[in-house]
Amino acid sequence: MFVLFLCSCNNKNASNSENGNDKITEFDLNAAKAEIQKKTKLFTEAHIKKDTAYLNNSFSQDAKVFPPNSEIVTGRKAISRLNSDWVNYGVYKFKEETTSFYGNGDFVIDEGTYYLVYGKEKTIDKGKYINIWKNVNGEWKIFSNIWNTNLSTQTP
Q1: 97 close to 114: Cβ distance less than 8 angstroms
Q2: What CATH number belongs to 26-149?
Q3: Inter-residue contact 130 to 136 (CB < 8 Å)
Q4: I want to staple 46 with a disulfide (CB 3.0 to 4.6 A). Which of 54, 60, 73, 86 is the partner?
């Protein structure tokens, strides 16, 4: 991961072709953050609304999800099964709050905390996450997603 950012540490996108002419454009981190925060809000709401079409389309084709206590889920097709299982289990509240945001025109990293209420027993979970967003043909898609709880799993 370090190599990725080391190799692409300038804030310019190499090319955007317009009418056959290549031009260099500045990457606007604040604009990317605003766009991804909107997408994140829709993403969390989609869990509650059971909108698996929106959830599935939020991921790049080559995405990976690292769920807690589970194997890595790779590719949009496999992630769509995970999304379906998750929303059918029941999500009643879900909020993500960004604590750090950085990157370039190809990838951005959104680190933060989450609050989640899910399942028949309306279990409350609080934890942290990292989403790596990938620019796919001008649209930000989740490329990698990991989260885990801050709460103890042990009972006294």
Answers
A1: yes
A2: 3.10.450.50
A3: no
A4: 54
